Automatic annotation (TrEMBL):
Name under which the protein is recorded: 3'(2'),5'-bisphosphate nucleotidase CysQ
Keywords: Hydrolase
Species of provenance: Streptomyces ochraceiscleroticus
Stored InterPro entries: CysQ/Inositol_MonoPase, Inositol_monophosphatase-like
The keyword Hydrolase appears for this protein: yes
Enzyme Commission (EC) number: 3.1.3.7
Any GO MF annotation of the entry: 3'(2'),5'-bisphosphate nucleotidase activity
Enzyme class, first EC level, given as a word: hydrolase
A Pfam short name: Inositol_P
Domain of life: Bacteria
Amino acid sequence: MSTSYIPTRDRADHELAHRLAEAAGALLLALRAEPGRTTRLSAEGDRRSNEFLLAALAAKRPGDAVLSEESADDPSRLSARRVWIIDPLDGSREFGEEGRTDWAVHVALWIDGALAAGAVALPAVGRTFSTWQAVQAAPDPEQLTLLVSRSRPPALVGDLAERLNARLHPMGSAGAKAMAVLRGAGSAYVHAGGQYEWDSAAPVAVALAHGLRVRRLDGSAPRYNQPDPSLPDLVICRPSAAPELWGALDALASHM
C-alpha cells in the first residue's frame, strides 16, 4: 500500500490550510448564531463557506486548482500540479441541528500525486487539527470503538464489531469521526457506501501526518485528484488497533 501523504516543505501551505479551515468555521458559527434563522441553514452554510474559501484561495494561491463539493468540477485540475480539495461544510445535517458539534470544515492540498497538507476544523468544539500543528498523543480507548456514519453505517460493521468485540459509536461528519480517532475517543473510523474526495482528503492528510493508519476496505491506499472524485470507502485507525482491524477486514472480504 503506497502512501497518499507526502508533506509539502512549504510551511506556508500547511499554515494556510489551517487558517482557512479555522476562518471558515468561524463564519459558520456566526451564521448558526444569527437570530431567527431556522430554514435552509445548511444550504446557506455550504454556500457562504464555499464562497469564502474560493475567494481566499484565489487571492492566496491564484495559480492553484480547486476541487470543491459545492462547485462545478473543472477538468483542468487533472493536469494541475497543485489542487486544493475542500469540503466547505462536512456534516451539513448536523450543522442544521441545534446543539450538535459533529460537523467540520475540510481543507486539503494535493501536490503531484499525493496529499501534501490539510486541516479539519471542528468549530463547535473550538478545535482545528492540521498538518501545521502537532497534536499531543492521546491514549487508546479502554474498549475497541468503531466510529461509523450516523445516517448510513456500512452493513459490514455489525460483523466487524462482533469479530472484534468492539463498540459502535455513530457520529456525523467524516472529519469529526477521523479527529475523534486522533483524540483517542475512538479506535477507528470505518466507512463504506459512498463518499467523495472532499469528504476524506483533509481528514486523511491530518490522520497520516499524526501517525494514524489509513486504507480502503480492499487494503489499497486512497487516491486523490482522480477523474471520478468518488471515493466510497475508508478506514482510519489508531496504530495499536491496526493489526487486529486489518485482519478482521481481510477475513470479512474473503467471505464476500
